[in-house]
Amino acid sequence: MRKLARNAIVPAILIGTAAFTFFAPKGKDWESKFIKIKGGKLEYIPDEKGDIIPDFSRVGYHYGDKPLPVLRVVKEVTPTGTENDQDNIQAAIDEVSQRTPDKNGFRGALLLRKGTYKIPDHIRVNAGGIVLRGEEGTRLIATAGKKVSLIKISGKGQITEIPGTRSAITSAYVPVGAVSVEVADAGRFKAGDKVILYRPGTTQWISDLKMDQIQDRGGTRQWKPEDYNLQYERTVAKVEGKKVFLDNPVVMAMETKYGGGALYKYTFEGRIAESGIENLTCESVFASDTAENHGWDAISIEKAEHCWVKQVTARYFGYSCVNLSRTAKNVTVVSSNCFEHKSIITGSRRYSFNNDGQLNLFMDCHATDGRHDYVTGAVTCGPNVFVNCTAKRTHADIGPHHRWASGTLYDNIVTDGEINVQDRGNWGSGHGWAGVTQVIWNCTVKSAAIQNPWASGNNYSIGLKGNKVEGRLKGRPDAIWEGQNQEGLQPESLYFTQLKERQGKKK
Q1: DSSP letter (8 states) at residue 316
Q2: Residue-level pLDDT at 24
Q3: Which strand (E) or helix (H) includes residue 272?
Q4: What pTM was computed for the model?
Q5: Is residue 280 part of a domain?
Q6: What is the pLDDT of residues 297-307, one digit of tens each?
Q7: What pLDDT score was predicted for residue 505?
Q8: 426 pLDDT band (50/70/90 cuts)?
Q9: By residue range, what is the domain housing residue 256?
Q10: If 0-12 CB within 10 Å is exposed, 13-18 middle and 19+ buried, where does residue 64 land?
Q11: What is the DSSP string of 131-152?
Q12: How do 167-168 and 353-355 pair as beta strands?
């Protein structure tokens, strides 16, 4: 099974001296017509609308610009040998939560000494700057007789618009990949402002996507405009005249005919940051291979940013190793595993690494017996990245799952199953189009259906090894396909190459 070698660069999100370089390709090297290497640098070729494949490199913990920190141990816990270690661990977390954060927002690490800890419900981390760390041989056992997350990282609050800061985008078309927008009043913004790049859902857009005419099978919900008001979290890089430059690119075109868009400042009071889970084995008890009432997620994260999960192995859960909610932002999940799910094999189960948030990175992860192993949910705003991950004994597909994800890179994913980006029609309660600006780069699959939506942009299958199939519904537009079953795609990894180039420019 192909796995990328790393010995040339040192991305900040990696630990120690691990790095990435290109494989020596088999056969003749080739490049996409949309991204070329010229003079040792990436050149992005726009299509007739000006859209380009965007830069995916500013995702994960502190946008990939800082290494995952190693926090000093400030508290230790040992197993009690009873049926309830939860209270002891929770008391220790609560104690660390009372510490004053340092200048970086860190409170310290809680070390769980090796041994077995039984958790009858769940453990919660509700403050920033806390790491829950295990040793070799540290096992947390979810003994709850119900669906529950074993470890929950969660802050409070929600995105709140700052009144009087909204300014309309004045351009008729802002292409995919753009890093600036023209607004009516750029004077409302300055470098460092946290802003929402807002794209409204409209009746016309849904009609052009044909998502108001999904074939009904009983319980099917047609799409409603108010459910598709997209909020992309960005930071202002600089302001020049009427142009506001953003730290991350546009990943879905902003079009006047579909309501245009706007920029406004926001707050998220109560969202926590700088917390991590490290070096743990998490397991759930289960009554049978199809049992349902037991641990569901090993780790769930919501209302949190700049957090991480590192070297965690989850076994026997019904849903996931890591489940990121829509309010989870700039999370790095690295070198983690989700093995041997226990549940019936049907919908809403076995989503090994689930991402509903934005600016998140999943890297060097592995899954077995899952359904949707590397997956995004409804109205997922990018960019997001899954890179250098594998899946075996799969029971469904990898990819955007339902109801419109925008801006996801699947880079060097190897699976014995499928990667699909398609119109899912009336599956579920009316999934419809799974997404746009979904880039499948140098992946290896059994089969793939990669399609373009009726409106609002492109999806890409570049350098895919595997069979091309029609997908669930006939007559859907093909995505952009290049180099199917052709070895030698350069760059081999889009994410690592974009990261290397961006970090090189900063030096």
Answers
A1: S
A2: 38
A3: strand 272-273
A4: 0.95
A5: yes
A6: 999 999 999 99
A7: 77
A8: very high
A9: 160-267
A10: buried
A11: EEEE-TTEEEEE--SS-EEEEE
A12: unpaired
